[in-house]
């Protein structure tokens, strides 16, 4: 038996938040992308309710352009932990004519997934969506609340946010509203990686260095693949790369890396001089890219 | 995250022009927390604006509206770390109408950095910031006297400001805090991470050294354990068929297996049978642990109840007196009814009387009919059910509450129980 237990303060705070979700809402869901942040959330949720099972399902918005490694990882995790998984596809939203596929050099389904997400929230009447966003990722996210109230249209009104005092969370909402919950708001990228290492959490293989067909554009490394638009002069190369952030293939750039173990990855992050979202093509669209997407319901 | 790195949470406050964003940017830069892409963005922006130095304020001013107005308008969180310590800064605006934001930022912090422009000295807003640090009972206050480069690093200027500030300290009702004065230039990096050679007369620590040696515990917090139950854990699985545990976060003191506890509000007694953190059993839990406790007896415990050591019963009352900070544009008036959330417990509350509006410049109080956004006042409430509380000065978590408007469901006030 452990004699005196000293908590990891960030982990303890996240668990407290996840328990508040289960207690204050009727239909919570955990938004699961298969990325390291949502995998960390799953571990925290396990810890929050153990020895009981996690009392809410996972929801994956599948753009259809995900890395196959992420999808197989997702299915395995759900199986192992006995969780319920709901998948909704961006392709269906396209087929229903609700959104139009982007065309051209920078086309991506990243923005389109907002519609699919909002539809899923409505379909299942989810009142709380737990997500793995962190305040350190991006300037606009630095002001995000832990319980972030969204209206019927999923919109974020950054000027009218409820103040959050101490660790008291106010989850009272009106019919039609829902709350986005960010339990690891206060974690940094390094916190997440150190936690994955300490806890020995499994993550998809694309986070480790591997050989991949890539091409360079705008100083970033893109996956060469049928889902990613590529011009004929953009030469395909074989390189050792890994991903620091895992989203849709069309908006996630790789980094050159030899880090093929967790130790090596943690060391690389610790000494890195490039920010995580520096490898997010979607954020490069403009200075206020993230803020503008959040206002219309992006997660 | 690294277990041997402690976590220090800092509230920064300052007026629009005190150089607060510059200071934070400088802390990030000096601790190598600014990444190449962020640094390049800062260089690019600074060049565009025609500055001949790096404008670190661009590292923190996030929202579009802020970039347009050149001011910070909400609480922003900034992260950096050194080998020994993880830091979280809750950056709150010092603008006159934003008392709300500073109270919010300070509520999750242990340290306040109050910035003073060396050319201006102690001004109205300095008083307000110190008043709020006092109200929130932050254990550590750092008075950073900034822009020393613009007063030729003059010691007499520093000493005069220090003396003026100490007059405020005399007026405050919270004397156990640790107050540290540091002369700095955020823009030039003097006394931030490296000791300034231009101010040899200053013998204290640099700002970063000082922040690193702080202890994360609140100075005043006594060892009263409070365990509000968040969620009852009943696995109903074969392996844990009869398990019934109470999950929550422990505040204020330790709890250990075998200890006699009282459950509030029922006042039933039991003994702690086991304490769990995930799949490990532990003997003794320390404050801020998110744990699960099981009891020796079959007692009725639900969300909102609180477990306490039987020899440390808190006060119980259906009428309370509290200092309120109004954090919503709807004013608080006599007769208003709210949901009062005390930790995770909710009761109904009615405003019985407003005793006074308290001036945040230490000049006393005056009678008032209402408390408007950013007002601080003393209020008496009548509650639908008794709450079990400690004075805020003895236990932060069990001495504070929020008021929720029943129409909008907004958080409209924060209260500190006397």
From TrEMBL, chain A:
- Could you tell me the EC number(s) of this protein? 2.7.7.4
Report keywords, A-Z: ATP-binding, Nucleotide-binding, Nucleotidyltransferase, Transferase
One term of GO molecular function:
ATP binding
**Signal sequence extent:** none
Which EC class, in a word? transferase
What GO biological process terms are annotated to this protein in UniProt? sulfate assimilation
Q: Which InterPro entries match?
A: PAPS_reduct_dom, Rossmann-like_a/b/a_fold, SO4_adenylTrfase_ssu, Sulfate_adenylyltrnsfr_sub2
Q: Which Pfam families match?
A: PAPS_reduct (PF01507)
Alphabetized SUPFAM superfamilies for the sequence: Adenine nucleotide alpha hydrolases-like
Ranges where the Phosphoadenosine phosphosulphate reductase domain occurs: 28-253
Q: Which family does it belong to?
A: Belongs to the PAPS reductase family. CysD subfamily.
Q: Per its UniProt record, what PANTHER family does this chain match? A: SULFATE ADENYLYLTRANSFERASE SUBUNIT 2
Q: What is this protein called?
A: Sulfate adenylyltransferase subunit 2
Q: Which organism is it from?
A: Rhodonellum psychrophilum GCM71 = DSM 17998
From TrEMBL, chain B:
Keyword Nucleotidyltransferase recorded: yes
Transcription: is it a keyword of this entry? no
Q: Which Pfam families match?
A: GTP-eEF1A_C, GTP_EFTU
* EC number(s) stated in the UniProt entry for this protein: 2.7.7.4
What NCBIfam families does its record include? CysN, small_GTP
Q: Which PANTHER family match?
A: TRANSLATION FACTOR
Q: What is this protein called?
A: sulfate adenylyltransferase
User: Which InterPro entries does UniProt cross-reference here?
Assistant: CysN_GTP-bd, CysN_II, CysN_NoDQ_III, G_TR_CS, GTP-eEF1A_C, P-loop_NTPase, Small_GTP-bd, SO4_adenylTrfase_lsu
Q: Which principal EC class is assigned to this enzyme?
A: transferase
Q: What keywords were assigned to this record?
A: ATP-binding, GTP-binding, Nucleotide-binding, Nucleotidyltransferase, Transferase
The Tr-type G domain sits at 5-219
PROSITE patterns on file: G_TR_1, G_TR_2
Q: Which GO molecular function annotations are given, in alphabetical order?
A: nucleotidyltransferase activity
